[in-house]
């Protein structure tokens, strides 16, 4: 009944908005949806563009600040197989799940943890030119991992010489979760080459919440209680970390050289270093024998990543352009957990080395006035060395797993008439640890008038199981353990043949513009075969989680955007997302997929120097377990911000996030309460 009422309300708003026609929002060019530069109004897929002006408006410091305020994108906590998952989230688009979202930096994959649970706090917002978010499967262009969508973070381009510096400081109303940010970017040109240099330091103190605990000592093999162990039954209160004490350093540079009039070469180097620590409730070995469960542990990370790439672009003529890119992304993770209540061995189980090597070529050819063809080929090798995938949970020795991907794709962008265009695409993927896959995509955009257009899109997607889903051995995960599908250990006595996910998505959207009002309504339907999800078995000491396929999952949804400019001083934007997700074999909804999420932003320009913004975010209740027996409460957050232009060089900004100190439940990560910040931007 509730869902029917929601759908009826959405339909009513759509009918109202369709009485108007859409304003000309100006030309917005995007590249992620087709790998060619195209006006967003001619793209058949759903695309959100977050500009650097949007980022500055909300005074964002990191990707986390940006993603929290984007509709139809939800953070999923607690999926990372480590006690510290309480402070880390991954991104899910349209309910498909965190593993189905491909995160790119300037079109390149990043080596990191599975599901990228850290990346939101690692990438400084000051280096971003724009973020392109393509919702819906993009497997025909990007292969595995893009079954739910693609987030492409595009850094500032080398244009006219400029230098920008950003200084920011913030803390919550109790003086916790302090964060100091320093960011700079400089862009220049000389007679030899063009260059860009950026750097960022983000220093954060922790935010903790007191939790009571009672330890139990068990035999790790049988799960039997060891009543004679001196740590058994000890109780206490501990400040559990929900925002790590962390220092994140990022540095990067790009050099471009015009070798000839038509041939450009580029070289990128990025370096990232992170120190992070927090206190969590987990498991630790006791020196005298036994495993102590639900005990305070200190988790310390010392991580770094080095990305190196070279690219070459050749413009043969106005009709033919080809590019070639090589890159390597190397990530070194070193994690240690140490018991706090007793002396025990240091656990280094979740350390890893991850390397991605990639070679890709793209050629775009304008065949005639009606057809633009894009051909592409890619070879990618991913290596993961980790003790977390060692079948012996007592060993810190690294085990190596390697996966290779070979793919080729073709896309045709057709201008059928002046008002009708279409996009057709196909891709072939050869994957070393899964079956070969062929995917197709077809979409069209019909422009009825200068102000009204219709988008229709069909896309197929797939996702091969990742290494954690196949091989992880985690002695502690939530209220049990976690084992990969291939693992046989302890209470898990059989392996499981985990198949790749396959999806089909259908989408239709109507866009209208009229003077100062614009609207967009999107209806979508996604079928996922063999969706990979965590399922649990057993109870008590025998409880464990593992990855298995759900036979069929169906996701239906609607998205609504309404923008209205009341005057040159005051404008608003409203977004609403409705999701109905269901595992057809159990008739249960997917976890961490709220039915409704909505946002309202109000911008008021007081004068030429002072701008203010208030935003409201609503997230409905969501299930936290596969049996749909436990839910989180719905919540609404209110944020305020202002920007003041002191002069041509200096801007001051300040704000309060979560003005009314709304508390979130622990399953959703627990926010830090009301958060006050201020900073200065310098542009030279």
> What's the N-to-C terminus distance?
57 Å
Specify the CATH architecture.
Beta Barrel
Average pLDDT over all residues = 87
| Separate helix tally | 6
**What's the CATH first level?**
Mainly Beta
Overall SS class: mainly beta
**Might you state the CATH topology name?**
Maltoporin, Chain A
Strand share of the residues? over 45%
Shape: globular
Write the CATH homologous superfamily: TonB-dependent receptor, beta-barrel domain
Largest sheet: 22 strands, antiparallel, barrel
What is the helical fraction, as a range of percent? under 10%
Count of all domains: 1
Number of beta-strand segments:
37
Specify Rg, calculated over alpha carbons: 25 Å
Unreliable residue stretches = 1-25
Domain TonB-dependent receptor plug: 42-150
Keywords: Cell outer membrane, Membrane, Receptor, Signal, TonB box, Transmembrane, Transmembrane beta strand, Transport
Organism: Candidatus Marinarcus aquaticus
Main location: membrane
